[in-house]
Amino acid sequence: MSINKKATIVSAVLVSSALLSGCGLFGGEDKKEKIDPPQTVSYEEEDVVTEESAELENKGKEEAEETTAKTDVYLIDSSGYVVSQTLELPKTNSVAKQALEYLVVDGPVTNMLPNDFRAVLPAGTKVSVNIKDNVANVDFSKEFSEYKAEDEMRILQAVTWTLTQFDSVEKVKMTLNGNEMKEMPVEGTPIGETSSRASGINIDTSMVTDITNTKPVTVYYLGGEQDSYYYVPVTKRVSNKLQDNVEAVVKELAKGPGMGSKLSSLLQKDAALIGKPEMKDGVVTLDFNESVYSSFEEKIVSENLIKALALSLTEQEGIEGVAVTVNGEADLVNEDGEKIEAVTRPENVNTGIY
């Protein structure tokens, strides 16, 4: 907030400040700017940024942060994928219930929807949530069953993945007007006792001929368009013969999305691991061949590729972070010339433009 003052001669001192943020690839680095020496300026009726006004502005931002919290809600994009979008929602003690309320068509999410995204649950749907023993027991009102058949899997996945973002929730049990719901009400998709992330999301079986001898892995591809990219989780089926899920995830990222998909992979098709992944203290180290470089001459590894690897591999149990080497060398840099460190999974998936 600026304060207007009328004066004839004022000494304006330009002050630069460093923007503080978290370190690592999911945050920024401290930046400093060179400032010019103070100059004397004459003016009438101009806005002056004083120390007092700067403090008021910072206080306003802090108060706003105290009243809101970043929450992932899974919405549907223009290609029909279920995708996490991070929204600033009012702070509440009922975060799980609130998250589902922001999935409802014509609900509170309406004015917050990103471009080309739509809400998931039918208009008018009301929810109640009770969490016990890591299971979110969700009861939907009768409006829940008023969705289009083609959205049935998307709704099941959006509800499950929205709720399981919270540490206290591992599984979801759903009822309709208090009545047990073991299958979805329109197309009859089986739910069983509970649903979980193990069931997958945006499931792609296009490259599978015998699904009985496969297992699921979830990888993150890039969706959207330039200046508004976002990460899309896709569950693919891989052969049971691939005992190491880490290697399976890397191979699927290199293979890329299915035919006709609007998604893209950031890992080149000929990029491959040249050694067994090594695990230490929850961090898995991947040693790639030189095809992992986005620029071979400058030996640059794409920052967005590292993010995709981190998101994909931390879906695997026991993996908390990812480190990358090339031919055993760890001194790698991203597009900004910054050294690449081990990366952990971000608290929120899609928080901005990539």
From TrEMBL:
<feature type="compositionally biased region" description="Acidic residues">
    <location>
        <begin position="43"/>
        <end position="55"/>
    </location>
</feature>
<feature type="region of interest" description="Disordered">
    <location>
        <begin position="34"/>
        <end position="67"/>
    </location>
</feature>
<dbReference type="InterPro" id="IPR019606">
    <property type="entry name" value="GerMN"/>
</dbReference>
<dbReference type="Pfam" id="PF10646">
    <property type="entry name" value="Germane"/>
</dbReference>
<feature type="domain" description="GerMN">
    <location>
        <begin position="96"/>
        <end position="185"/>
    </location>
</feature>
<feature type="domain" description="GerMN">
    <location>
        <begin position="246"/>
        <end position="335"/>
    </location>
</feature>
<protein>
    <submittedName>
        <fullName>Germination protein M</fullName>
    </submittedName>
</protein>
